[in-house]
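SAMPLE LOG
Freezer: B-3
Tube label: C17
Construct: single chain, 185 aa
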Amino acid sequence: MKVTRTGLPEVLIIEPKVFEDERGWFVESYNERAFQEALKALGLPAPRLVQDNRSCSKKGVLRGLHYQRAPHPQDKLVSVTSGAIFDVAVDIRKESPTFGKWVGVELSANNGRMLWVPAGFAHGFLSLQDNTQVHYKVSDFYAKDCEASLNWADQQIAIEWPALDVELILSEKDKAAPLLAEVSF
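STRUCTURE (predicted):
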């Protein structure tokens, strides 16, 4: 597996090794030991991933920016099994030198990339194709009383979302999410 740091050093692009031949391909999409060793080699915490989540979205669906507050913050390993997304992580740790900064990466079934989004970062994505299926492995169980969100269009953050030829589709909750100045992690 190849691990690359992004402009936010704790957020990582992970590319598993793909074995291809005339029959097709095979990939070990997750290996806990290899994943934890890779994080530790970079001096990062290596939590166990305890829950898997999946979503399916139409082109133009924007989900996020979501996170869980203490005592149940979640680290996320995000991958795409069908379609493509523009995946975004925003640093919401007020004491961090990269507070309010964001990174965006295209993840697709074709490129096989994954994005590691540690706790302390809000996460969201824009679906670039119909029937886009996203898979998340997370480090803590969902806790409704800890769920929170950050406004996807906050001008202080100024995420450069890709332009699409369809109207964006957001949940009412995501449309009404607070601005960065109002969030607490």
